[in-house]
Design brief:
The complex is a heterodimer of chains A (422) and B (199). By secondary structure, chain A is α+β, with helices and mostly antiparallel strands. Helices cover 59% and strands 8% of the residues of chain A. Chain A has a five-stranded mixed sheet with strand order 1-2-5-4-3, with helices on one face. A two-stranded antiparallel sheet of chain A has the order 6-7. Chain B has a four-stranded antiparallel sheet. The longest helix of chain B is centred in the C-terminal third of the chain and has 17 residues. The N and C termini of chain B lie far apart (67 Å). Classes of the chains: A alpha+beta (422), B alpha+beta (199). Chains A and B meet through helix 2, helix 3, helix 4, helix 15 and helix 18 of A and strand 1, strand 2, helix 5, helix 6 and helix 7 of B.
């Protein structure tokens, strides 16, 4: 890693780098692996474990350590295998539910395409135990979304209270997904009808990028999947939305590149260019190369070299990953500053003056546009609808008060000062 | 029971390291079988006798041919609902400890005593924290075991003096005991300040 602040202790950086070494070992084809050469006494184990857990790569680290026959303290070996075992049980349960849901959707004439989760674990890693899964993500067509929600509700799922007071129509127009939880099993399902929020990219929000093109075997069933190039593009969007703060997302890209035999780079680059998202795509490939050790074709390396903004983005991702992994408040970027950092990241990853201007405009517009909450606060008849634009600032001022601006700006100033002092 | 038959229907099978995990679709229970229990479960196809199954264990795992070991595995398979046929109870059957001792005497690891652990999955408590698949509380509790082991054997874990000092001061308990909540947008920043999201 390059450009890390001096105040991050050497052993923290060493632990992070050992995790990366384990990932490179686990992801490399067996014949091409260099020895892992892990010296137990050199690793700060709890920190190493914590970083692996935070980044969702415990099973891959466990695989690397087992296959390299590294010697570990007993408690560490126990911890790794216990976490991997529990993760697998959890994944089996989610996979079983995914197959049931896909069957139910199919019987109702609805198409759902799983994203990440069990389908990705089975199709890319070839083993459900190697990829931690938090919930079930399903892409559905916007026109089918309401029917899918109803079907899930009939199966006992309950809508999360993320959009109080909004009608489904309003939710579908302004959001990218909706989440439901089953109260008996705790299984969480996210139905996506867009690959990103409208604020992130309006054109990507409106495109349906997950056309099923192939299937993958999952347990005793088959699940639909988009073609590999589309999947990589979707993973790039997802990673960029979250600033690639989890190593497991980078591993997904690396494994996808490794297992895809005839990767159509022309198709992928054309797709990225169509949405002016080449930089976003190249960043995902750069991360897979630098952090997960995945070789890239010379043509892609040249494109990466040609985009000067990518180095800065890579450093931002690395710093965020390390700060987040260590969880040390005095080391991590200030939480409020980090909120602002995500907007800066979005801006930097966006190409073209027009798109950047649109991004800024959307940022402000989505925050000042009147909402149902404003209408509830002070109901105006339809003929006076433009007046709602005045209601919103008044309501927000009264709700948050001037103290919020003072607190927010002082946190931002403090965070910036800390960052500068490193 | 002359030729035991293991249940294979309604189960998903996955392997992890030396263990086999069986997930029961009907009951949502998962069963973790160690090598010996897994070998008996795989081989018990209704065509082999108990003695023949003992032969399978000998050939596969180098375990001395002993019907008591097979019967212990079958008993556990039955009690977890993984056997289609019945195991007859024998009052003079050796205990698990006695079998462990028997294996140790024969120079075989006691970890090869058949073991099946069952867990119900998932429970709402297992509802995972982002990106992990394992709940935060379980993770923190388990990491505590590693930390207490460090307190007993610090040199085994850390050669760096500053790292040892930090861990032994208990700093790590505070630092690693909690996940940093991801701040991904403006509303998360408001949440950090204890304010409601912009609605």
């Amino acid at each position: 890693m390059s450009g890390q602040p001096d105040s991050i202790p050497n052993y923290s950086l060493a632990s992070y780098n050992v995790v990366l070494r384990c990932l490179r070992y686990a992801l490399a084809p067996v014949a091409e692996r260099s020895p892992l050469d892990l010296k137990p006494a050199e690793v700060a184990w709890p920190e190493f474990l914590s970083i692996a857990q935070q980044h969702g790569v415990v099973p891959l680290v466990n695989l690397a350590i087992n296959q390299s026959e590294s010697v570990l303290p007993d408690a560490v070996a126990w911890w790794l295998s216990e976490q991997s075992r529990r993760g697998l049980v959890h994944n089996l349960s989610l996979s079983s539910e995914l197959l049931d849901l896909l069957d139910a959707f199919s019987k109702a004439g609805l198409t759902a395409v799983p994203f990440k989760g069990p389908a990705l674990a089975a199709s890319l890693y070839g083993n459900l135990s190697l990829r931690p899964i938090a919930d079930l993500d399903l892409f559905v067509s916007r026109k089918d979304a309401l029917s899918c929600v109803t079907l899930l509700q009939e199966r006992g799922y309950v809508l999360a209270d993320r959009f109080p007071g909004l009608s489904p129509k309003q939710i579908f127009r302004g959001s990218k997904d909706i989440d439901l939880t089953h109260p008996d099993t705790g299984i969480h399902v996210e139905l996506h009808w867009a690959a990103c929020e409208p604020e992130f990219d309006r054109r990507l929000f409106e495109a349906e990028l997950w056309t099923p093109a192939t299937t993958a075997r999952l347990l005793d069933g088959q699940v639909p999947l988009p073609r590999a190039e589309d999947l990589l593009f979707l993973l790039s969007i997802h990673g960029a939305r979250h600033r690639w703060q989890c190593l497991k997302w980078i591993c997904d890209v690396a494994v996808l590149l490794r297992v895809s035999e005839h990767f159509d780079w022309d198709y992928l680059l054309e797709r990225a260019d169509r949405f002016s998202r080449r930089r976003m795509l190249l960043l995902s490939l750069l991360l897979a190369e630098r952090l997960a050790g995945m070789p890239l074709p010379p043509r892609v390396l040249q494109l990466i070299q040609d985009d000067r903004k990518l180095d800065g983005l890579l450093q931002q991702v690395e710093l965020l990953q390390l700060s987040r992994a260590i969880c040390a408040p005095e080391l991590s970027v200030d939480a409020v500053l980090e909120g602002a950092g995500s907007e800066v990241f979005r801006f930097r990853i966006t190409e073209g003056f027009g798109n950047q201007a649109a991004l800024i405009a959307r940022f402000f517009l989505t925050r000042i546009r009147p909402t149902a909450e404003d209408q509830r606060y002070f109901a105006l008849p339809a003929m006076l609808a433009p007046g709602r634009w005045l209601v919103r600032p008044i309501r927000l001022c009264l709700q948050y008060g001037p103290g919020t601006i003072v607190r927010l700006s002082s946190r931002l100033r403090a965070g910036l000062a800390r960052t500068k002092s490193r | 029971m002359t030729r035991p038959l293991a249940r294979k229907d309604g189960l998903y099978v996955e392997q992890i390291a030396d263990e086999v995990i069986l997930y029961d679709k009907g009951t949502h229970k998962a069963h973790c079988l160690n090598k010996t229990a897994a070998a008996v479960w795989e081989a018990a196809d209704g065509t082999r006798t108990v003695e023949e199954l003992a032969g399978v264990l000998e050939a596969k795992l180098n375990i001395p041919k002993d019907r008591d070991i097979v019967l212990l595995a079958l008993e556990q398979l039955q009690s977890t609902g993984l056997l289609s046929s019945e195991v007859s109870a024998e009052s003079d059957r050796p205990s698990r400890r006695q079998i462990g001792r028997k294996l140790a005497m024969a120079g075989v690891s006691a970890s090869l005593v058949p073991v099946i652990a069952s867990v119900l999955a998932p429970t709402p408590a297992m509802a995972s924290s982002p990106g992990t698949g394992v709940s935060k509380s379980i993770y923190v509790k388990d990491l505590g075991i590693v930390n207490s082991d460090i307190a007993d054997n610090p040199k085994q874990y850390l050669t760096s003096k500053s790292a040892q000092d930090d861990y032994l001061k208990g700093l790590v308990d505070g630092v690693h005991g909690d996940f940093a909540d991801g701040v991904t947008d403006f509303n998360d920043a408001l949440k950090v300040l204890g304010l409601p999201p912009l609605s």
